[in-house]
Amino acid sequence: MAPDARPQPAIRSDGAAVALSGDWTLRLLSPQLADFRKQLDETPDSAGWDLTGVTRLDSFGALLLWRRWGRRRPAQLVLPVELEGIFGRIDALGEVSVPVEPPYRFLDATAHLGRMLIGFGHHLLNFVALVGQLCLDLFYLIRRRGQWPLREMSANFYKVGVKAMPVTALVGFLIGVVMSYLSALQLRAFGADVFIVNILGLGIIRELGPVLVSVLVAGRSGSAMTAQLGVMRVTEEVDALTTMGISRYVRLVLPKVVALALAMPLLTLWGSAVAVFGGMVSANLQLDMSYEFFLNTLPRAVPMANLVIGLGKGVVFGLLIALVACHFGLRVKPNTESLSVNTTASVVTSITVVILVDAVFAIATRNIGLPFR
Amino acid sequence: MSSATTFPVELRGLSTRFGDTWVHRQIDLAVPAGEVVALVGGSGSGKTTLLRQMVGLLQPAEGEVRLFGEPLSAGSRDAQLARRRRFGMLFQQGALFSALNVFANVAFPLREAGIDDDELVNHLVLLKLAMVELGPEVALRMPAELSGGMVKRVALARALALEPELLLLDEPTAGLDPDRSAGFVRLIRALHRALGLTVVLVTHDLDTLAALATRVAVLSDGRILANGPLDEIMTVQDPFIERFFHSQRSQAALARGRAEA
């Protein structure tokens, strides 16, 4: 039992008069609210009310009574002086209601669609402005060698490149194993075991490696970049930089873009290499293909052009992921809701953009680097 | 009368350590029911830490906190929840849920407490908003669309939603201009009188202190230097109290606050 037990609320009705006693507070009423409401509803409308037995009354209890009385004082009411104030406040509130949101109509849907289109236009415009500003800043920096934010670039490179290596390797290795395992089953049925090298080499180095690493990096580093810039917006750090005359594009955006554009091809190379290695191990176990044979066949099956295309994709995807991340990061408004919305949008957009651009690459390079044509 | 009703908050032999530094050493403090107790002290003296320990957000290294006569973690889960519903806290930045509008923010604790009658909740929320002098027109606004003063008012309405017996205020007037700050102090004082609340507040604003507090606890060097009505505190001979209360600026602020009270 609680050491400070309070008198329980109670209601006594003898037809013409209703007497209340105990604590009419939210704490004691809420556990059996339905019960008390029923008892209140059963009291006669014309009854006289006696509240002298009430030991404590809060606005919850008062409101419960007020609503039973039909939002006015009953004709016969015995009310202790100290409880006057609480009913006075409720009375003073009068008839108010929560404003309701206007219903959703067809016109609103049209306006919503229009707003989305205009919003998309704004995004494009802002993105172009961001790229343009970066180019202008680059021209400026070419003339001022000393102002390159080299430390920031190196720090960013370490964060997005070196630290992403373990996860890239793990995912790459497993994908290589899975691909090799699935293809081996099919190829053995046709006695075409040798072609596993072509499938793995071309598929991973040209397509899967860059896209896989991009998706990982967008989720890992792109979101971090957006969140970092966003938090700096929320805490007004970006404004502080601007006030000191330091360009946010030079100091915040450029190092991220340069670092990711440099790190992505290297990560792609690393990821693809580990994936091919995984495929090679799996082929050895499944098809008894020797490592020596695999490595000797690989350069013949996969022309050099494919590696160049893969690494080129890495550079472009890295640029795009960093630019999209910074674009959304700088759009964050100083509140937490906006931060989460923009971080989500950043990751979704960069992955979508990477896959779209990959499709463009596939079409543009369809005549390059493919043997057996 | 049992000790629970006389002292809603009791700290017994409370010590706090961050790393190797002791922030509090053996603090004993009892907050009498119905009083407004102000915790004052220099920056870094652990005022807010003490407040956070009272509501169980931080655990002291030694000693215990008793709310309404029992430790916060005593009893079953339901008993703990019931105890938590007996106090409300106003955070320094308001801590409104940014995904919910003003109405939903104030209604949140009510709905969580299991009150599912929509009309009753509506009426209660509007009553709480009226108590903090806000009209129904702000009900649908989002926290991001409110001014600093309005955020504090809505946060106060939310803290009052469950009819608490104890209210904890962390820097209630920080970030408000003098005019709004005086208005907010008036509001809290009126609510204290009307609802008979016990209030614990942390502040370094002497205007607020003089206008609101019925008792003052001075925190310095990790212990409670003095604890009592303001006039009594002023007579204590101590270098910190000397600096804090007796400088010219402090005297002016205290006089302003007293006139306000």
Strand ordering within the main sheet of chain A: 1-2-3-4
**Which regions of chain A contain 5 or more consecutive residues with pLDDT less than 50?**
none
**Gross morphology of chain B:** globular
Q: Main sheet of chain A?
A: 4 strands, mixed
Range of strand content of chain A: 5-15%
Quick one: how many beta strands of chain A? 4
Q: Provide the structure class of chain B.
A: alpha/beta
Taken together, the total number of domains of chain A comes to: 2
Computed CA radius of gyration of chain B, to the nearest angstrom: 18 Å
First-residue to last-residue Cα separation of chain A = 87 Å
- Helix count, DSSP H or I runs of 4 or more residues of chain B: 11
Provide mean pLDDT of chain B, rounded. 84
Could you estimate the helical fraction of the residues of chain A in percent? over 70%
Portion in strands of chain B = 15-25%
Rg of chain A, rounded, reads 35 Å
Class by SSE composition of chain A? alpha/beta
Helix-strand sequence of chain A:
EEHHEHEHHHHHHHHHH
Structure notes:
The complex is a heterodimer of chains A (373) and B (261). Chain A has 2 domains: 10-93, Transcription Regulator spoIIAA (2-Layer Sandwich), CATH 3.30.750; 121-364, no CATH class. Chain A is 71% helix and 6% strand. Chain A has 13 helices and 4 strands. Chain A has helices spanning 26-29, 33-42, 59-68, 84-93, 106-143, 150-160, 165-190, 196-234, 237-243, 248-287, 291-301, 304-331, 336-364, and strands at residues 10-13, 17-24, 48-57, 77-78. The longest helix of chain A is centred in the C-terminal third of the chain and has 40 residues, at 248-287. Chain A starts with 9 loop residues before the first strand and ends in a 9-residue tail after the last helix. Chain B is of the alpha/beta class and 261 residues long. In chain B, 41% of the residues lie in helices and 23% in strands. Chain B is built from 11 helices and 10 strands. Chain B has helices at residues 3-6, 47-54, 77-84, 102-112, 118-131, 148-159, 178-195, 206-212, 230-234, 239-246, 248-260, and strands spanning 9-18, 21-31, 36-41, 62-67, 70-71, 87-90, 166-170, 198-202, 215-220, 223-228. Chain B has a 6-stranded mixed beta sheet. The mean pLDDT of chain B is 84. The A-B interface holds A 2-4, 25-27, 30, 33, 37, 58-60, 63-64, 67, 85-86, 89-90, 92-93, 96-99, 101, 333, 335-338 and B 2-5, 68-70, 79, 82, 85-86, 98-99, 103, 113-115, 117, 119-120, 122-128, 130-131, 135-137, 139-140, 142-144, 162-163, 194-195.
